[in-house]
Amino acid sequence: MLAVVPPPVTVRAPSKINLHLGIGDQRSDGYHEISTVFQALSLSDDVTVAASEEPGVDVQGEGTGTIPRNSDNLAWRAVRLLAEHVGRPEDESGVRVMIRKEIPVAGGMAGGSADAAAVLLGLSALWDLDVTREDLGTLAGKLGSDVPFALSGGTALGTGRGDQLVPVLSRHTFHWVLAFDNRGLSTPKVYGELDRLRAVGDPPRVGSYDPLVEALASGDPRQLALLLGNDLQAAAVSLRSNLRRTLRAGVEAGALAGVVSGSGPTCAFLCTDGDSAVEVAAQLAGAGVCRTVRVAHGPVHGARIVDGEDSP
Ligand code: C5P
User: Fold this and answer.
1) Contacts of the segment 137-143: beta carbons below 8 A, 24+ positions apart
2) Which CATH number does the domain housing residue 27 bear?
3) Are residues 109 and 208 in the same domain?
4) What separation in Å is there between the alpha carbon of 187 and the centre of ligand 1?
5) 161 and 182: one domain?
6) Among 23, 35, 161, 165, which residue has the most ligand 1 atoms within 8 Å of its CB, making it the best to mutate?
7) Which of 36, 81, 133, 179 is most solvent-facing, going by the fewest CB within 10 Å?
8) 191 C-alpha vs ligand 1 centroid, how far in Å?
9) Which ligand 1 atom sits nearest the alpha carbon of residue 144?
10) 58 pairs with which residues across the strands?
11) Are residues 161 and 181 in the same domain?
12) What does each of the 312 residues of the chain score in pLDDT, given as a tens digit?
């Protein structure tokens, strides 16, 4: 009798930026207590999971030379975690993961987290599992602080490690220009640098997210621009001083405001509308302050199946 091989499943998972990122104290588990407002952006990775006799991870696209292909890869850890969770660890040896990357690697836009979220959703369809989105969210939190948001998308307030999510009302679409740096930044190093800066001085703190949440509800990009803020920015700039120039160049190119995304080094620039974003991107690309620029909009959906089985 022939075994039925399920068709491959492709999932699109979004990048994120932090419109507001407030970092609190370091906890006993080494993580910092944070309060953040995430927005999912149209810049996304497509991840295909397929039954295969050659298990492993393939990566194409943005910055792929630097991604681990072995069991350190977060996407592969997602395969293992889901297989263990549903009691079929033997199945992991029959899975191939193919990642088409647009999200910069180690760029502060949660690209690895997006890929892991995509694997959880894609495999639950490939294996026809009876797991809810809520279960997937719990597994996502075990893989990394940003993975639950990559599943849920939209605009959300994140607390705890950033994994406790509540949706936030966001009216209208916002238009962004993203400036990628030449090399990535390590998230633990950027948190460590913030701890160091706080031990020797008093870097600025973003304060409450309430005004920003109101600006999102109003949908006015000019109002939102005044309220973007990231406690990790000072640390990212301290490790990568060229980011100061990039941030200035985006505003000089006509953006309403710029902010380092998460732990950086990607800088995100809010623009008045889509046309302005295209102009800002062209001018910023010509300024020679970054490796490459992209235009994106948000909020967009969390990880979702774009080809293959229906979503669970
Ligand atoms: O959760 P994730 O693996 O993405 O976190 C990577 C690193 O970033 C952690 O090991 C920790 O050093 C730092 N981090 C933190 N506090 C957070 C999130 C991440 O200190 N809330």
Assistant:
1) 137/165, 139/78, 139/81, 139/82, 139/85, 140/116, 142/81, 143/74, 143/77, 143/78, 143/81, 143/113, 143/116
2) 3.30.230.10
3) no
4) 7
5) no
6) 161
7) 133
8) 8
9) 1
10) 98
11) no
12) 567 788 999 999 999 999 999 999 889 999 999 999 999 999 999 999 999 988 889 999 877 766 766 667 999 999 999 999 999 887 777 999 999 999 999 999 999 999 999 999 999 999 999 999 899 999 999 999 999 999 999 999 999 999 999 999 998 899 999 999 999 999 999 999 999 999 999 999 999 999 999 999 999 999 999 999 999 999 999 999 999 999 999 999 999 999 999 999 999 999 999 999 999 999 999 999 999 999 999 999 999 999 765 544
Which is the closest atom of ligand 1 to the Cα of 162? 21
pTM metric for this prediction: 0.94
Give the C-alpha separation, 193 to 266, whole Å: 17
User: What CATH number is attached to the domain comprising 242?
Assistant: 3.30.70.890
Count up the domains in the chain and report the number. 2
The CA–CA distances, whole Å, from 48 to 2, 69, 115, 285 equal 24, 15, 10, 31
> What ipTM, to 2 d.p.?
0.96
